[in-house]
Write a structure and sequence with these properties.
Helices cover 11% and strands 37% of the residues. The chain is built from four helices and 30 strands. The two termini are 44 Å apart. Keywords: Disulfide bond, Glycoprotein, Membrane. One of its GO terms (cellular component) is external side of plasma membrane.
């Protein structure tokens, strides 16, 4: 894997194999106005580089540092230890290498530390770094690193790190395997000319580049987000100003099958806003690039580049309640419906409770979108007695609870990935009548679909029409029978 990091000043850094056969993978300054620099090979063991970034310090360019994130082979060979661990390393952008006698043309500021993402109370560690995204701030100390990890048991997690906390480890931790006094300047300190550093300072960097202390996330008791049923492979984070003029972070996570999850971060908790598939069929995401200003996410698949519009407000355009329940900071309810023009619109990102939609101050839509409006006209089916049958309504929100109401009763639905089903093994007289598919979310009830089931007409009805109706139901009957077999065996 090759990672490049170009700078506006013309310098080019690369994490790439040193030799054509792909061996000796290392991070180096490859081209530009400064001297080329290499790594000391013993510093890393079978590394896989994930990403690199610079923390810009316009008022203190001499102390600008490059951060490198990677996985490497774990030196702990015990059976219970994960063979891989995650690391963060740091070098000074102004590094010129050492003098002729030690680390000449090699980084003199290289330090590394263990990057931890875990549930300490349960001794569960997510050791395998997969991807990172840096949410930069004008003050570098306020920048955040969102890191995506996987585990040996196929779970994934997101941990968030403060760049200030991360830097403090490099500034204050002891050096692993070194017990003597730490010289001045401290190893890893950025200086004007590293070739004039004291030999003792350089020697510690050469022989003991690892920090004793580990880098822990902001939320120390558990990862910020854990998924046991989705394997995530890529991450990006957008910062959005909503209609309440507050700023919200939105995580964009790609699954191993190529779908994109848009997830709200609020009060250290998560809420999945939407799931979007950009490919026909499962396909791994190879690259992902966020264009925050255009509110677009560029997603690369093998042989295909797709663009996800992050302002898909039309997905919640059915009603004010649907728009608010989505808790999507890119959208708000206005007189034009659910739109990306959030100024003056209504939204409730904090809780998603749509009570504001029923107030007199809520804007009324000028013209209803016919394609998104709910039809109060029920769908009519004529089904003979004894036939198996099923009813279906779409699942618009996985946060809602769906049920079927018939006569005076209510039953939960049989769920597929995208539909709520009502299964009838064999039609009886009791099964005829009206059916309502109802969703309930945050004290808001909505009828999603209406049906009417009737028996065949009296004998005077045209036989041909009845025959056609029954023929149309045969594929449904077969499918329903199969569903009942699967459901009964489960």
């Amino acid at each position: 894997m090759c990672t490049t990091l170009p700078f506006p000043d013309g310098d080019l850094y690369a994490a790439a194999p040193l030799y054509p056969d792909g061996t000796s993978l290392e991070f180096r300054r490859q081209a530009g106005s400064q001297l080329k620099l290499w790594m000391n090979e013993p510093w890393l063991t079978e590394p896989t580089f994930i990403s690199a970034f610079v923390a810009s310090r316009p008022n203190d360019p001499m102390n600008e540092k490059i951060y490198l994130l990677f996985r490497e082979r774990n030196s702990d060979n015990s059976p219970e230890a994960d063979p891989w661990i995650s690391r963060v390393a740091r070098v000074c952008k102004t590094d010129k290498g050492g003098p002729k006698r030690i680390l000449q043309n090699i980084w003199t500021s290289f330090l590394k530390a263990r990057l931890v993402c875990a549930i300490p109370g349960e001794s569960l560690y997510f050791n395998r770094l997969q991807d990172i995204f840096v949410l930069h701030s004008d003050n570098w100390k306020h920048s955040l690193v969102y890191a995506l990890f996987s585990s040996s048991w196929n779970a994934t997690a997101v941990c968030i790190y403060s760049l200030a906390d991360l830097d403090e480890i490099f500034e204050k931790s002891s050096f692993k395997g070194y017990d003597d006094d730490i010289p001045t300047p401290r190893p890893g300190t950025c200086v004007r000319d590293s070739r004039s550093l004291p030999i003792q300072t350089i020697r510690i960097t050469k022989n003991h580049p690892e920090m004793t202390e580990w880098v822990h996330p902001i939320q120390k008791h558990a990862p910020f987000y854990i998924s046991n049923n989705q394997i995530y492979t890529k991450i990006a984070v957008d910062r959005v100003q909503a209609s309440d003029e507050k700023m919200y972070n939105v995580l964009l996570l790609a699954t191993d099958t190529g779908t994109i999850h848009k997830i709200l971060e609020h009060d250290s908790k998560t809420f999945i806003i939407s799931e979007t598939s950009l490919c026909n069929g499962p396909a791994p995401v190879l690259s992902m690039k966020l264009h925050s200003e255009k509110r677009k996410l560029f997603v690369g698949y093998r042989g295909q580049m797709s663009v996800l519009d992050l302002q898909r407000c039309q997905d919640y355009n059915t009603s004010c309640e649907d728009c608010v329940l989505a808790r999507d900071p890119y959208c708000a309810w206005t007189e034009n419906g659910c739109t990306s023009q959030t100024e003056g619109g209504i939204q409730n990102i904090a809780t998603g409770v749509p009570h504001i939609c029923s107030t007199n101050s809520a804007p009324k839509r000028r013209k209803r979108d016919a394609s998104s409006s709910f039809s109060t006209t029920p769908i009519v089916h004529i089904v003979p007695k004894g036939f198996p049958f099923y009813l279906s309504c779409p699942i618009d929100s996985h946060h809602a609870t769906y049920s079927w109401e018939h006569r005076d009763g209510s039953e939960s639905c049989q769920k597929t990935k995208s539909d709520c089903l009502y299964l009838i093994p064999a039609i009886t007289t009791h099964d005829y009548g009206n059916y309502s598919c109802v969703s309930r979310e945050r004290n808001y009830n909505k009828i999603v679909k209406l049906y009417q089931l009737h028996g065949p007409s009296e004998p005077q009805s045209p036989n041909r029409a009845l025959k056609l109706t029954v023929q149309k139901q045969w594929p449904l009957a077969i499918f329903t029978a199969l569903l009942f077999v699967v459901h009964s065996s489960g």
